[in-house]
Amino acid sequence: MPGENLTRDEARERAALLSVDGYEVALDLRSAVGDGGAEPRTFRSVTVIRFRCNEPGASTFADLIAPSVTAVTLNGRDLNPGAVFDGSRILLEDLAAENELTVDAQCAYSRTGEGMHRFVDPEDGEVYLYTQYEPADARRVYANFEQPDLKAPYRFEVRAPEGWTVWSNGAGELADGVWRFAETRPISTYITCVVAGPYHYVTDHYERVFEDGTKLEIPLGAMCRKGLAPYFDAEDVFLVTKQGLDFFHDHFDYPYPFGKYDQAFVPEYNLGAMENPGLVTFREEYIFRGKVTQASYEARANVILHEMAHMWFGDLVTMEWWDDLWLKESFADFMGTFANVGATRFTDAWITFANRRKAWAYRADQLPSTHPITADIRDLQDAKLNFDGITYAKGASVLKQLVAYVGRDAFLEGARRYFKRNAYGNTRLGDLLSVLAETSGRDMTVWARSWLQTAGVNSLTPQVLLDTEGGRIAELAVLQEAAETHPELRPHRVAVGLYRRTPEGALERYARVETDVEGPRTVVAELAGAEAPELVLVNDDDLTYCKVRFDETSLATLREHLGALTDPLARALCWSALWNLTRDALLPARDFIGLVLRFAGRESDIGVLQMLHAWANSALVHYAAPQWRATGERLVAEGALGELREAEPGSEHQLAWARFFATVAAADHDLLLLLKDLLDGAAEIDGLVVDQELRWAFLEPLAAHGMADEAVLAAELARDDTASGKRHQVRCLAARPSAAVKAQAWAQVVESDALSNALVEATIAGFGLPSQRELTAPYAEKYFAVIERVWRERSIQIGMDVVRGLYPSYQDRPETLAATDAWLAAHTEAAPALRRLVLEARDDLARALRAQECDAAAAGR
């Protein structure tokens, strides 16, 4: 209903009218375990809000999304729930200067990961609850003023089933059957939290003695479902947690302000994690049931540190409205990698950032929905979609550029002043820029306008002129370009590296200059007279945010000698640049795939290798010319098998190649038979352990090609009768090559809301496979017929999953593009967030068609 979608104007009006003094929230969750009959649907929520009104006699509203309200009392007056509650808002009229509102409601348990999510573990029947609110789902659990700038302290109390433990933001204790929690500091609604159930819980502690002699002690806790306890490496989670707390205390000069520090790994989580102060929640997939590469541990450490950075950037100091979401997410994304490199064993995390994280940003920044880092967020639906590659990865990249621009010390001193001046308050862009101007001595307005208030990504290309003998550089310039739609040419602080091969054949840097690039052409005077390079790498060391291009000589060198680059960051930057060339239809997909087949086996960084696998697969299924696709699939599958056999037995590189081989093995029936034999134990590769997670990875392509039927998948689920196993089985069931299977999967996702969010995601993943283009072709027309209804009837999370996941991207023909355009033309009044999702999918398809044309043209070379 319209009231669910709070607008920025409504929020500003309410913030000007109200100040909130505190909340008392009482939840009765004893219904969560049910009585053996129908699944529990609701729980009791009683909220008391004390607040002041600047204009006595005025009217406003409180937020609540609930099936029913039992009673509403305002300043001692009983209000008629039927008259004041419309399903999402409670009308509050004739306010006093000081007010007390009590709301007694029946709130709904969630199966979509929004609000109070309820999960039943199929392994043992245990029930687990957790909350997830960002940006505005606390109102699904208790009545409130759901906007980030109406901060307040909270007191929670929870009645739970016997034998359960309950956690919230503050420390809690059980007395007389009620869990009562210490009052929080002033925080926003979206970072309040409750976790309840028979979780496996491990404890530790952190101590810090500061220079003035004061001592800080922080109780640490970490939890997961009992079924995951055998795999839970809590000691590593605590190690990274302590390293992060030390790092941020060293650099922020503001002690962690929220008491305890619990971390809950919870099932069916929509996000990577959420920064609830004192009780961070993570998706439980960060607990690894099988062997994974170090890239997975690095990613988990990065997320732990990202969420920890939020304790200062976001929780202590919070953006006023979602326009300035970057004030928390961009900083946390930057600080996650900054701390990973500075405090943990993952000292090469900037390589992962350059190769993987920025790829997300580059894609997002070239979509028609791209936006400035400081975005124009009109309402909550806009806010939900702006948790994207711009706000996170581009924002973090720009902060890395800012550090190069103002200097590390000035940047960190600015952060310290920002915390101390705005603690427990709300801020806008100008509040941060003012302290950075103080500490750096630079005028931040021009920098902010170029980097924060304009959209689009620049391309930087070297232009090399040699002297008449050809042995030295006469002039080296950097050319800057921008898209016509976003023509801003920005100031870039970059390093330009010159590379040549050594007598031993290694491709190494022999000269480097840092310079400021401004405007369309910048001459790098310091490099005049240097020996002629074989490779010029603009943005060496990855100081700025840009698409790197190459001159002809450099590109020719990479075609022949990419694997000879000895510096792993330089190599990662070159791979990223080549991928961007492929996406931009400037390098044929078959050429990129050829480079991967030739050089990926020599890649030392496991995270880069796994990214290359993903890119090579995308090049095959999206960007390769259809008439060459089968050839490419065979070449890639044979290449992957060769690398798998050559990899060091038992190494993480072997594991990465095994997973990639499973993804591409469908190119040949004999390769699928090998996959089946590896699964059954009839074949072995020295050192490769086919654990349960790898078994499911092998089963999906077998199911998709009719070599693992329903009985086989049922037997595998019996072997792995867990929540994780169920998700894998559902995905594999939907992947089977049958029209009846696809019809059933479509109905389960589109026509029913019986599946939980995790099983919706799994079903969509199995439904739309690139090898089944003909089988899913009939659903292209159905997609456009149903998406507006799905968006209207389902939660925004499920709506996003359906609209993104079921778009007919594998029907990569001009006709699909035309059908998309027709829907957009006929639905100009559809929800802007829905139109954004369709526009993004259309842009990806148009890009794929352009790349296919480029690849087809390569056939005639």
Walk me through this protein's architecture.
This protein has 861 residues and is an alpha+beta fold. It has 28 helices and 28 strands. The strands form six sheets. Strands 1, 2, 4, 5, 7, 8, 9, 10, 11, 12, 13 and 14 form a twelve-stranded mixed β-sheet that branches. It has a five-stranded mixed β-sheet with strand order 15-16-17-19-18, covered by helices on one side. Strand 24 (492-501) and strand 25 form a beta hairpin. Helix 25 packs antiparallel against helix 26 (796-805) and helix 27 packs antiparallel against helix 28. The relative contact order is 0.06.
Mean pLDDT: 96
**Approximately how much beta-strand content do the residues carry?**
15-25%
**Largest sheet composition:** 12 strands, mixed
Number of helices: 28
Structural class: alpha+beta
Helix and strand topology:
Layout (H helix, E strand, L loop, with lengths): L7 H10 E11 L13 E12 L6 E4 L4 E7 L2 E3 L1 H4 L4 E4 L5 E13 L4 E6 L6 E6 L21 E6 L5 E4 L3 E4 L2 E4 L12 E4 L2 E10 L5 E10 L9 H19 L8 E6 L6 E2 L4 E5 L10 H17 L7 E2 L6 H18 L5 H17 L14 H6 L4 H17 L1 H15 L3 E2 L1 H12 L3 H8 L7 E8 L6 E9 L10 E10 L5 E11 L3 E3 L11 E4 L8 E2 L3 H10 L6 H16 L5 H11 L6 H18 L2 H21 L5 H13 L4 H12 L11 H13 L5 H10 L3 H13 L3 H13 L5 H11 L5 H4 L2 H15 L2 H10 L8 H13 L5 H27 L3
Parallel strand pairs: 1-10, 7-8, 16-17, 17-19, 20-21, 22-28
Antiparallel strand pairs: 1-2, 2-7, 3-6, 4-5, 4-7, 8-9, 9-14, 10-13, 11-14, 12-13, 15-16, 18-19, 22-23, 23-26, 24-25, 24-27
Helix pairs in contact: 3-4, 3-5, 4-5, 5-8, 6-8, 6-13, 8-9, 9-10, 13-15, 14-15, 15-17, 16-17, 17-19, 18-19, 19-21, 20-21, 21-23, 22-23, 23-26, 25-26, 26-28, 27-28
